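pasting for ref. prot 1 ->
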Amino acid sequence: MDLDALASARHDDWERLDALSRSRRLDGPEADELIERYQGAASDLSLVQTTAGSTALGDRLSISLARARLRFTGTPENPLRQLTRFAVVSLPAALYRLRWITVAVAIVTFVVAALYAWWIGGDPRALAALGTERELRQLAEDGFVAYYSENPAASFAGAVWTNNAWIAAQCVAFGITGVWVPYVVLQNAQNLGVTAAVMFAYDEADAFFLYIAPHGLLELTCVFVAAAAGLRIFWAWVAPGPRSRGVALAEDARSLFTVAIGLVFFLFVAGLIEGFVTPAPWPWPVKIGIGVLALGGFLAYLLVLGGRAVRAGETGDLVEFEAGATRIAAG
């Protein structure tokens, strides 16, 4: 084989491979071209080594291929950079994809809670079935408020955080069953409605809303998001579309596992508010304002960063940090 003739014929292709390998940013077509030219150069190298053994031309091609391979496989990154990409790309994208299911879960929760409160509040027998007059009055006038301050703030915040994070993780992990998430949603709505009915019955509606609002705005939203993630995984199994069920389930489960990890942080914030802000002797506008700011920050994170990431093509998959960050930087 004439190596000079091969080098002359393939020179432009190899130069283009080197140019793509050195490029700081690649769009979709360029990334595909890089793979295609890598495969072509690998075939050329195999031909050179088979017919001529070790040569300067083969060494040159080996270097080009190593550089290209490093470009599309990536190099180990600093963990801090990976964490940053997770926080600003993958997590908000995964949350954004769930926004409408989250709204649906919230509506169902509040409707069911309102129905429970209306039913129990309007039926003395249903109210009496919850406990004795003394027990219900004690809950409404003392127990509900005391719950937030009967334990040290730090330990209470930690207990609330771990409990809610565990519930969120269960929603994502067991969402495929199609049963667990509706059970959690309905149980949460029932507890909310029953508690509201008791508080309303003893003229403590103001205490109910005042003590729920500071932490509940963010906490309940996180639970709604976790439920939405579980339902999304279930639906990927029921109606995979053009994908096979296995592929659909694997793809959605990977991206929505991102949600379970991210909610740990937001629930930690909600736990801190519940432990340190809700029972604090501060003016209620201040305490509720903190809750509103926490929810506002979460929604801005979801809608602004998440919308930007999704428009750039990010799915929220944990394995797409590099590709997602590159697309957003380019856009």
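and prot 2 ->
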Amino acid sequence: MAKPWATLGIDLHLEPTGPGLRRGLTDALRDAVRTGRLAPGTRLPSSRSLAADLGIARNTVAEAYAELVAEGWLTARQGSATRVADRTVTPPTGTTPAPSPRERPRPAYDLVPGTPDLAAFPRTEWLKAARRAFLAAPNQALGYGDPRGRAELRTALAGYLSRARGVRADPERIVLCAGSVHGLQLLGKVLRARGVERVAVESYGLVPHWKQLTAAGLETVPLPFDELGTNPTELTREVGSTHEVGSRRRAEPTEEGAVLLTPAHQFPMGVPLHRDRRATVVDWARRTGGLVLEDDYDGEFRYDRQPVGALQGLDPDHVVYLGTASKSLAPGLRLAWMVLPPTLVEEVTAAKGGVDTCGALDQLTLAEFLTSGAYDRHVRAARLRYRRRRDALVRALATHAPHLQVTGIAAGLHVVLRLPPGTEQSVVQAATWQGLALHGLTFYRHEAATTQPLDALVVGYGTPPDHAWAGALQALCRALP
């Protein structure tokens, strides 16, 4: 037989066996249906196409189809394609189907922070930008590109970040990545390769970020936190290792090689890093040669004033700026960026494996979205939407729970709601009973943090679509003590 597969019409892998062409083809098709390799409803090639591809007579294929139709394996109607019949697929002998996991019921409302209102994604404008970008793209854009990412997007980002976030950006120093977690994964590899052993982090933050650093072989050391934000004065401290000095023993001061911060709007505590502490961090980086990893995840959303400029603008040679489209547009785009010190560009590019990790068409679309002004218009509209939600949340809490305190600046996509001591877990459980997904502050606390624990809720107001917002507020108020 000429070929064990068919490629005309649809791809169909068959290996006819047994005596005779028709019997071998019939048995192969029957086995493919029985084992589920051909799913119910699958459209089969025409007898002419399959015969030509297998190098056999068309009548042989027609007879095999007819036999399987008579047995109930296939269905055929005049003027319609031959298809696999609807039936229960029997697993191969000797295999036990894995038990399906018991799914938890989805909550009716979601106030977990970290996701914007996906229903508000600018689909129409995005499609227009995609069409313009795709039609204007050179053929080479569909090939293997620069591992740093498409030059069009890096150039557009350099202009936007400079005017909107105060970032000193050069397209040659921007590297695109598939989300901020991916960016931290790359930076973790580079830091470890440089001999760094410890990275200072905030007492409260995102566990996936810490895990990426830990996976790279780095120890994460939490810094203290108070009303002025994270306290960086602890970056240099004495540790337990000792050395003999004459007849005396002294502690050996050690420093972390990098620090991960959210200075514009600390997640989840919701306060900006105090200006004096911003200066302290930059001074530490200059003095020690350390790196500041600045996560600017929702820095564009400030409601009571202009957003605080990025820390990177103070010292581009010692600060890595990480930004993302996950909060402003949608996490499913998997588009984020790093503005790197010149000395890091080659190392981070090598850590990516020397390949671009983001789809070229999405990169070109975002570049067009930025340069056309559509991104600015979308962010302004989103800023107004989230400000209204935050105001409604604060009003509802003032009415239904005036004894509870809302903390954090008017920014971002969440607030912190302080609770009476010892009540956090019971309130989270009560929220579950109300069909509400909600996280307590403890969920974001570093396991080695020395800061005094607080009972609080981290209430994300970005996720619910507009039609569900009122119901989510009511469910939250019912769960509060």
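Confidence is low (pLDDT under 50) at residues 4-8, 238-254.
The radius of gyration is 29 Å.
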